[in-house]
Amino acid sequence: MGEAFIVHAGNPKNLHSYEDVAANPQAKLGLVSGTMEGRYAQAVGIGNGQIAMFPDVPSALSGMRAGRVDAFAGTALTVQDMLTKAKDNGLERAEPFSGPVIDGQVAIGYGAFAFRKEDEALRQRINKELAAFVETPEHLDAVASFGFNRDQLPGPVKAEALCHHPDDSL
Amino acid sequence: MVDYLPAMLSGLKVTVLLTLGAMAVAFVAAFAAGMARLSRRAPVRGLALVYIELFRGTSALVQLFWVYFALPLVGIRFDAVTAGILVLGLNTGAYGAEVVRGALSAIPREQYQAAWALNLSPAQALWRVILPQAVIAMVPPAGNLAIELLKNTALVSLITLGDLTFQAQTLRAATLESGPVFALLLGIYFLLAQTMRFGFRRLENRLAHGQDYGGVR
Amino acid sequence: MTVSATDNKPALIRISRAGKFYGAHKVIDGMNLDIFPSEKVALIGPSGSGKSTLLRLLMTLEKLDEGEIEIDGVSMWTESMAGRKVPAGPAHLKAIRSHIGMVFQSFNLFPHMTALKNITLAPVTVLGMGKEEARQRAVELLGEVGLGHKQNAYPGQLSGGEKQRVAIARALALRPRILLFDEITSALDPETVGEVLEVLRRLAQRQDITMLLVTHQMHFAREVADRVVFMEHGKIIEDAAPGQIFGSPKQERTREFLKSVLQY
Ligand SMILES: Nc1ncnc2c1ncn2[C@@H]1O[C@H](COP(=O)(O)OP(=O)(O)OP(=O)(O)O)[C@@H](O)[C@H]1O
Ligand SMILES: [Mg+2]
Predict the structure, then answer these.
(1) Do B and A touch, counting CB pairs below 8 Å (3 needed)?
(2) What secondary structure letter does DSSP report for A119?
(3) Where in the sequence is the domain holding B38, given as residue range(s)?
C-alpha cells in the first residue's frame, strides 16, 4: 500500500513527497497519531514543529479545511476515501507523488495477519487458502467496494522477504 | 520505564502549561461572569448567563473543535496552545462563575447594609467587605474545578497538542506496554492533583486566618 | 435638654408627609416628625409598626415613596441641578449620609477584620484619614466603649455585648451628627445588655450627637430619651416627653400598648 498526500487546491506549497515537506520549513504536515506516517516523517527528517498530530481522520480533515496544515499524509487508500467523502473542491490529492525513501528504498506498508505461535497449523492452513484466493476475480470483487484494486496486491513479494526479525511469526 | 521519560516529560510540560494558563483564564472569566450575574443591569446579567450556559451546556471537546477547526473558517485563528488554554479556561470559568455567584450571594445582606451605613461606595463595599469574605468560600470548590481542569487537558490531543495522555497513548501504541505506561501516567496525574490540592489548602488556610465563623457576626 | 415644642432652633431632621410602600402595603403613612439637634428620641410601637423602616429611610437604605425628608435643611431625595429639582444622585446621597450613622440589631461587624480594623475601615476609605490617625482614634473609641484590650480580636472571638460595643465605636468613628439605633440590645444575652446600655447612657450625655433609638426597653427609653414617639401602622400616634407618655398618655392606643409591654 503506497502513500499519498492531500493538499489544498493547486498545491500552493508544491508538496509531492515527504522529502518536499522536510525541505520546506514553512510547510506543515498533518497526520493521524499512531500511524506509520509519523515514522516516515521522522525518518525523512521532518521536524517535530512541522508536524500536527490529529487523533483521527475526521479531525485531520477538519484541520486541512481550517488551514491548520498544508498537507495531510496517509495511505493512498485513506487519502482517496477522505477525498471521496469530503467532496471538497478546496482539497485535492498531490499529484504526482513519490513515497518516502527510507534506507534507500521506497517505503510501502503491507497488510498482514498475526497468529499465536502455537497455532502453526492454522497459520499454514490460512496461508494456503489465501494463496489460492488472492487475485481471484472473487477476491477483487469482494474488496472493490473498499477502494482496493489489483494495484495494491503484493504480487510476487513474500513475507519472508519483508520480515527480518527472528521472532516474527509471519 | 526510563525510556518513557523524554516523551512523558514533554507531555507533562504541555499539560502543566495548559492547566496553569487555563486556570488564569478561568479565574478572570469566573469573577467577571459571576459578578455580572448579580448586576443590576439586565443585559449584563443576560450576557453572563449566555456565556455560562453555552460553556456548561456543551462539552469541552466540542468547544475545542469549534475554536480550533471552525473559527479559522471565519478568519479567527488561534494557535493550538492558545485555543486550548482559552477553551479549557472559559469552560472551567463557566462553572467557576456559579461558584463566585454562589459565594457572593451567601454573604448576608446585612453586610452590604453595614457597608452602606458606613458610607462605603458600592465598589469599596465589594472590594473591602464582600469579596474578602466570599473568597474563602470560593477556594474549596475552586480547588475541585482546578483538578477537573487538569484532567480535562487530556482532551487537547484533538487539536494536535501532545499532552501527557497523548504521549502515553503514543508510547502505548509504540511499545504495546499498556500497564507500565498507564501506571506512570496515573502516578504523574496523581502527583499533579495532590500538588494542586495542597496549594488550594494552603490558600484556604491563609485566607481564613484569624476568622471564626461561629455565631452571629 | 429641652423638649422640642419649646425649642426655636431649626430641625436637624424634618420628616414631612413621608410615605413608604412595600408592594401595596403602606408601612409609613403620611408621617410628620421634626427632630432637633442633640435631641434623644425613643421610637416605640408594636411589631410591624414601621420603626425600623423609618430608621432605614433615614439611613438611605430604603427609598422614600412620598413626602420629604430633610437633614439640616437639605432635601434627602432631591437635589437641585441648574435650578431644577432632580432625583438625588449618588454624590448627594453620600454627602447626606455622612451626617448619619447606624447601629444594627445584629451588629453586622465585618467578620474578616479585627475590632480595630472594623473601626478604621470607613475613616480611611471614606474620609481619607491617615492610617495612623485612624488607628489612634479607633484605639480611643474602643477605650471609650470599654474594649481597649480587644483591639486585635475578630468578631467571632467577641461576645454579643462586645460586638455591639465595637459596632457603636465603628459608627462613632465617622463622627456622625445623627446616630440611629435599631433595637441594639434585642439580640443580646440578658447579662450583656447592661454593658451596652451603659455605653448608650454615656452617649446620651453628648450634646454633639442627635439620637434616634428604637427600643423595647421602656425603662431605658424613659431614662435616656428627651422625647418618646409612639407609632403604629406607619403613623405617629403620640409624641411627648417620657414623663407624659409613661405617666399619663393622652391616647388610648398608647395606654393599651404600654400596658401590654410593661406587664410582659
Ligand atoms: N423588605 C420588606 N419587604 C416587604 N415588607 C417589609 C419589608 N421590610 C419590612 N416590611 C414590612 O413593613 C412593615 C414594617 O416593618 P418594620 O420592620 O419597619 O417594623 P418594626 O416596627 O421595626 O417592627 P419590629 O418591632 O418587629 O422590628 C411590616 O409589616 C413588615 O412586614
Ligand atoms: Mg424593627
Answers:
(1) yes
(2) G
(3) 2-212
Q: What is the pLDDT of residue A133?
A: 80
Residue A112 predicted with pLDDT over 80: no
pLDDT at C264: 58
For chain A, what is the mean pLDDT? 84
By most ligand atoms within 8 Å of CB, the mutation choice from C28, C47, C54, C215 for ligand 1 is: C47
Is any atom of ligand 1 closer than 6 Å to the C-beta of C22?
yes
Chain A CA closest to residue B175: A34
Q: Does A58 touch chain B (CB under 8 A)?
A: no
Does the pLDDT at position A106 exceed 80? no
Ligand 1 atom with the shortest distance to the CA of C45: 21
pLDDT band at B142 (very low <50, low <70, confident <90, very high): very high
pLDDT beyond 70 at C6: no
C176 interfacial to chain B (CB closer than 8 Å):
no
Domain-embedded: residue B217: no
Q: Let me know if residue B121 belongs to a domain.
A: yes
| C-beta C110 within 6 A of ligand 1 | no
The per-residue pLDDT for range C145-158, each reduced to its tens digit, is 999 999 999 999 99
Task: Give tens-digit pLDDT for C188-240.
Answer: 988 899 999 999 999 999 999 999 999 998 989 999 999 999 999 999 999 99
Residue C17 lies in a domain: no
Rg (CA), chain B: 20
Ligand 2 centroid vs C74 CA: distance in angstroms? 26
Ligand nearest to the CA of B109: 1
Q: Is the CB of C52 under 6 A from ligand 1?
A: yes
Domain assignment of residue C32, yes or no: no
Q: What is the tally of structural domains in chain B?
A: 1
Going C80 to C82 to C87 to C91, the CA torsion angle's sign is negative
Beta-strand ranges (E) seen in chain C are 13-22, 25-35, 40-44, 66-71, 74-75, 78-81, 84-87, 100-103, 178-182, 210-214, 227-232, 235-240
With CB atoms and an 8 Å threshold, state whether B169 touches A34: yes
Closest atom of ligand 1 to CA, residue C216: 25
Would residue C154 count as lying in a domain? yes
CATH of the domain at B146: 1.10.3720.10
Chains with 3 or more CB pairs under 8 A to chain A: B
Task: Please state, in angstroms and rounded to a whole number, the distance separating the CA atoms of residues B9 and C136.
Answer: 57
Question: What does residue C29 show for φ and ψ, rounded to 5 degrees?
Answer: -130, 100
Boundaries of domain holding C124: 109-162
Has residue B200 been placed in a domain?
A: yes
Residue B1 has pLDDT above 70, yes or no: no
Residue C150 lies in a domain: yes
Q: Indicate if the pLDDT at residue C142 is higher than 90.
A: yes
Q: Coil, strand or helix: which one is C228?
A: strand
Instruction: Tell how far the Cα of C182 is from the centroid of ligand 2, in angstroms.
Output: 7
* DSSP letters spanning B112-146: HHHHHHTT--HHHIIIIIIHHHHHHHHHHHHHHHH
Q: Domains in chain A, start-ordered, CATH in brackets?
A: 3-106 (3.40.190.10), 117-162 (no CATH)
Instruction: Please state the pTM of the whole predicted model.
Output: 0.80
